[in-house]
Each structure stands twice: as structure tokens, then as C-alpha cells.
Amino acid sequence: MTTSEAQAPGDAAAAGGFPVRRQHAPTSSAGRALQGSGAAPAGSPPSAADPDPGRREPTGLPVPVTRGGHRAINVSCRRRLLSARAAAAASYPAAGTGSARRASPCRPRPPAARRPPATCPCSAAVAARPRVPPRPPSAPCPGRRSAAAMVFQCQRDSWARQFATRVVSCRAAELRPEGGGEPVRGFQVVLEDTILFPEGGGQPDDRGLIGDVPVLRVTRRGPEAVHFVQEALEPGAEVLLSLDWDRRFDHMQQHSGQHLITAIAEHMFGFKTTSWELGRQRSVIELDTPSMTAEQIEALERSVNEKIRERVPVVVRELAADDPEIERVRSRGLPDDHAGPVRVVDIEGIDSNMCCGTHVSNLSDLQVIKLLGTEKGKKNKTNLVFLAGNRVLKSIEQSHSTEKALTSLLKNGPGEHIEAVKRLQSSVKLLQKNNLNLLRDIAVLIARDFKSKPVQSQLFVLHRKEGDSEFMNIIANEIGSEETLLFLTVGDEKEAGLFLLAGPVEAVENLGPRVAELLGGKGAGKRGRFQGKATKMSQRGEVQALLQEFISRRSPEA
Ligand SMILES: [Zn+2]
């Protein structure tokens, strides 16, 4: 199906202009999370797919009712949901009015001297992420509709894997791939609510499906999450969202892991976190210290894993903006126009941090944290590299398979791998040295053989697969004749290699660039030497013919 065919007939206005958020009927189903991979409604007794519902954060959302395979919601539940939404909608700092940075709830800025120094790593990470592309000037900015950004279902319940919601708008758009390349044509879809986290707080965006349509990117636009898909979806249509849980849970483990490491590093050593990055393979915390000793890293790793074993709960709370406790929360403060409650992630007894990300409910969900060591950071900073949760298992699996391959190659056990490689390296060095000496000897013998002939030809051509620039120069030095033109090459006979043209100064100056051109390479030279790299060694025959012709013309009797 092409994208134009997929566009619903009634969607032209929404696709072309800026969408209008629809008010849905009171009896319509609203956003409802389906916990776990099965369709068990929230509030159902624990099942195999839902082993521990009690550890989730209380969402305050109504209990959905299952009806004829579809889940519906009654009017009183609906009211509760709307009031819960209204409260939630006020719980984020102001949406951007033209500024993507301000739009991010993890980018609170400190108003004059009221807040402690900037410490929230989320903020720095958000600043480093690409900005949301500017909207066309004719389109009204949704961020202006409300001073407070929305809280999405993924933030109320980070464990929800499926969710029924409704399409609010769908408009044609293009997506620029993260790694560069041609833009992808598709549609920006806004839903009533979402369990797909738009990027923020250093945490990348989620992937998933709307129905069976893959979501390629989720970004935050003011109070909305914008889902990029390649098929048009009809505004008003009920859809089932499915989350790519593996990707999300990985992000939850790394993000909560970062909060824990940050808190303990500050508590143990006073090293404040200035930014962090959740990478594809590993994550990095930038600490405000010029260095960290191996003992400190070891003690930090021991302590964070101890906290994981203690199964400390992680709780998301909403604090009133004037709550004095906010002063004690690790953050960069609130933006000037902030209204409504503030979202705070607590690791009980360890840390309180203003954050928009999706988090685990208990440190035991992190399984394990491995600190891989430090790398040099910016001036007076240290980058601490870590893995959390399943990444540790994956890393061990990779290391183990590498170790098995090395055991087979080196024919000894893992404990002897390093010594075996060291022995191999020194033996290779010795062989290279011997090889070089032999090549030199051969070069000298070749030159002497040439000179020993009673009549020396005016052209000397030699190719040798093994050899280098020095090998060719030794021959040229040894022959050293002003009368003979030498064309020497080393390397693969059909592909790339090196060449040297030596002989009478004028002839070499004249012929050098043409030889280089014929060999598909580049070269330079002076005083009767012209040498360079060749990419088409197969052209050596042509070069030889050219040189032969040159000599014939110079001395027809030759
Ligand atoms: Zn965070």
C-alpha cells in the first residue's frame, strides 16, 4: 500500500493542516493499560503473565471492565480517569513555546537563586539530543494551549505493555533517519494517550506497534507525544498500542541504574553527576571529578549491587510545586512558568530526583550493575561507563564466546590467553625483522646480478609480491646507473601495491606522472626517483610497453 492510498479520505484536512484534538463521548473507552503481554485487565488477580502486580506504582486509574472481548469503562470511572488526567496534565513543567528544550519536563531551569546548583543529569542529556524540527509558521503550537505538559500513561505505569487508545490526529510528514540518509515519508500520529515513551531525560524513545503498524520514532511536541508511522491512521479510530518491551525494559534498567549510581557516587565520594548518556551498548555517567581510583570504582560497584540485593523500592511521586521537600530533591530546579505538581522519582532512603523517565519499581529489577571503568571526559570530568541488568548478561555471553574462540585458536585455557598472545606478538616481531633483512639481501643480490652482466640493458623491470619501498630503493641504489631506467613494483599482482621509477632525471620527470596514471595511483619524486601507490598492478604490462617505446625513441639503435 502506498502512503497516498493509506491516507483516509476524511483525513485530508488533518493531514494537511494542524490537527484539532477531539473530545470523545463520555461512554467511549479511554486509555487503558493491559498489563503484561496478555490481555489481563489492570486489577486482575496475579497470573503467569503478571507475576507481581503489587510492586507497580499505584496509578490511580479506574479499573477497566471487559465486555465482549472489548474493554469499556463506565461513566464514573470515566470521570475519575478525566480528573486523574487533569491532575496528571498539570504535573509537568511548561511545554515549549517554540523551544524544544523548554518543552522537555527534564529540562527544568532554575529561577533566580531559588534553586540549588544544576545537578540533574537528565537536563544535560536532553540538551544534547536533537531538537524537535520547527513546525510550519501557520500551524498553532500545541504547547501554547496549556502551561503544563501532559503526563503519559507510560510515565504513570512503566510496566504497561499494551494499551487501548484513540487516534487524535494524523498528518503527512517526513522522518530523518538517526544515522543520516534519505528522509522516510510517513505520518505523524497523535493519540489520546500513549505507553510509548517519547525521548526525554537522557532516555531514548520507545518502539512498538499501533495496531499492526510499526512506530519508527516517538518524539515530544509540547504536551503531545508524536508517533511516526508509515501508514495513515484515521482520527477517531480506536487502536491498540503494543510496546517493544525488551527495548523499554532495557532503558528502564539503565535509567534507574544511572539514578542509583549517581546517588551513591555523590554520597560516597561527593562526585556530582553533570550529565549521562544511555548508549546502545553501554551507558556513561559524567562525574564532576578529574579522576577516580580503581578502589573507588570497586567500592561504588559493591555498594550499588548491595542496594540491589536489599530490594529497595523505587517510587514515583508527585509533589506540589511549593512543597518544601522540592528543595531537597536532586534537580536543576523548575522553569519560570512551571505550574502544577512535580514528578519525583524516589529510591527509598537513597535518592530523590526530578525525572520524566520510565523507571523500575524496585532496585531488584536492576538485577546487577557492572562498572566497566572510567574514561577521560571533558576538562576536570570523568566518564564512568556502566552496564545494568540484562546488558551485563549479554556482555558476559559475548565475552564468553570470544573466550571460547580464543581457547580454540590459541590451544590453551583462558588463564593463559594473555601470555600466549604476548608470545605470538614477539615471535611475529622477530619474523618481521628477519624477513626485512632477507629482503635487503635479496635486493642487493638482484642488483649485483644485473650489474655483473657484460652488456646492461637500458630498461630493468622487476615485480615481487613480497617487498616494500625500502626493497625497491635498495635495488635502485645498488644499480645506481644514470643510463638504465628501472621500473620496480611490489604487492599483489592484480590489485594494489607500490611502484618506483628510477633512472635519468629528465626521463623520470617526464614518465613518472604517466606511469602513476596508468597504474591508477598517485606518486611524487625528485632527482631521478618517482614512487607512489598503485591500485591497478595489472597494468604493469602497459607501463613496460610505454617505457620500452620511450627508450626506442631515445636511441633507435637500441
Ligand atoms: Zn532521570
Count of runs of 4 or more consecutive helical residues: 13
Q: Low-confidence spans: pLDDT under 50, at least 5 residues?
A: 1-149
CATH topology of the largest domain: Elongation Factor Tu (Ef-tu), domain 3
Radius of gyration of CA atoms, rounded to a whole number: 34 Å
Small-molecule binders: zinc ion
Question: Which architecture name of the largest domain does CATH use?
Answer: Beta Barrel
Number of strands: 22
Summed up, the domain count is 3
**Which outline best applies?**
elongated
Biggest β-sheet description: 8 strands, antiparallel
- Give the overall pLDDT as a whole number: 76
Helix-strand makeup class: alpha+beta
Task: Note the beta-strand portion.
Answer: 15-25%
The N- and C-terminal alpha carbons lie at a distance of: 75 Å
- CATH C-level class of the largest domain is Mainly Beta
Helix content: 25-40%
Domain Alanyl-transfer RNA synthetases family profile: 189-398
Subcellular location: Cytoplasm
Function: Functions in trans to edit the amino acid moiety from incorrectly charged tRNA(Ala).
Protein name: Alanyl-tRNA synthetase domain containing 1
Describe this structure in words.
- It is a single chain.
- The chain has 13 helices and 22 strands.
- It has helices at residues 3-6, 12-16, 75-89, 100-103, 121-128, 153-156, 245-269, 294-309, 390-410, 417-452, 469-479, 505-518, 540-554; strands at residues 32-35, 65-67, 70-72, 160-175, 184-191, 208-210, 213-215, 217-221, 224-229, 238-243, 273-278, 283-287, 314-319, 342-347, 351-354, 369-376, 382-388, 459-464, 485-491, 497-502, 522-526, 529-534.
- Strands 1, 4, 5, 6, 7, 8, 9 and 10 form an eight-stranded antiparallel β-sheet that branches. The chain has a five-stranded mixed β-sheet with strand order 18-19-20-22-21, sandwiched between helices.
- The structure holds zinc ion.
- The site of zinc ion has 7 residues, from helix 7.
- Residues 122, 201, 255, 259, 353, 355, 357 line the site of zinc ion.
- Its cofactor is Zn(2+).
- Pfam families: tRNA_SAD.
